TrEMBL record:
Record keywords: Hydrolase, Magnesium, Metal-binding
Required co-factors: Mg(2+)
NADP keyword on record: no
GO terms for MF: metal ion binding; phosphatase activity
A Pfam family the protein falls into: Hydrolase
Name of protein: HAD family hydrolase
Length: 237
């Protein structure tokens, strides 16, 4: 493998950490971390269902952010107003300024960078917001800015094959020697496989694999597995 491309959210860091911290700051509800993880998953599902409409300009980013809170909270019978949902989003943004890479991911990036592998990022989201997270995680230490691909800047998002083609053209990569790593089965795995890339599913949420024609080349449940997978490949090259 010569080119390794990463998703960001919930692939390089644990996205539930800022989510849990935000909830605990704003809500006096005795939820365990396990229950908060389920609430997080519900909010992600709402967000994913609204993302295409947001990208198409049918709803605003603010509306999507509010809805992913109000709709998810409703599933758990937690009363919430739109104003409180907006406050949660502001708190969540504040907590995202504290995110940190999985320890094993930092080791993996160092290993791949030192071996001269071509590294890149492909993430869905608004350009400024995703750039903030990339900066907070310190990813420019290993991945040059010109290899940061954000859907909001490109005008096309995963799983659209066009976004993968854009990266192929800009990086002049060999898709047979390229692997994409992400947590979203529909966006990351299906998108990468349709583009003809290899794909690793970072399934640390232990979601059930959807039934369909596309399957990951490898499924992993912990960042440690990513490091252990690449170490012998590097050593044997």
């Amino acid at each position: 493998m010569e080119t390794i491309i990463f998703d960001v959210d919930d692939t390089l860091y644990d996205q539930t950490v800022p989510f849990r911290n935000s909830f605990k700051r704003l809500f006096d509800v005795p939820f365990s971390d396990t229950e908060l993880d389920k609430l997080y998953v519900a909010s992600r599902k709402v967000s994913d269902s609204l993302f295409d409409r947001c990208e198409a300009g049918e709803i605003s980013i603010t509306e999507m952010q509010i809805r992913r809170v109000t709709d998810a909270w409703e599933q758990f019978n937690i009363p919430i107003t739109r104003d409180k949902a907006q406050k949660f989003q502001e708190t969540y943004l504040d907590e995202q300024h504290k995110i940190q890479l999985f320890e094993e991911v930092e080791q993996l990036l160092e290993l791949l960078h030192n071996e001269g592998k071509q590294l890149a990022i492909l993430t869905n989201g608004e350009d400024k917001h995703q750039s903030m997270k990339i900066k907070q995680l310190g990813l420019e230490r290993w991945i040059p800015k010109e290899n940061h691909f954000i859907s909001g800047a490109l005008g096309v998002a995963k799983p659209n094959t066009e976004v993968f083609q854009i990266i192929e053209d800009r990086l002049k990569l060999d898709k047979k020697k390229t692997v994409y790593i992400g947590d979203s089965f529909d966006n990351d795995i299906v998108g990468a496989k349709k583009a003809g890339w290899q794909a690793i599913w970072m399934n640390h949420r232990k979601r059930k694999m959807p039934v369909g024609t596309h399957k990951p080349d490898k499924e992993m449940y912990h960042a440690k597995e990513m490091l252990e997978f690449f170490q012998p490949i590097i050593i044997n090259n």
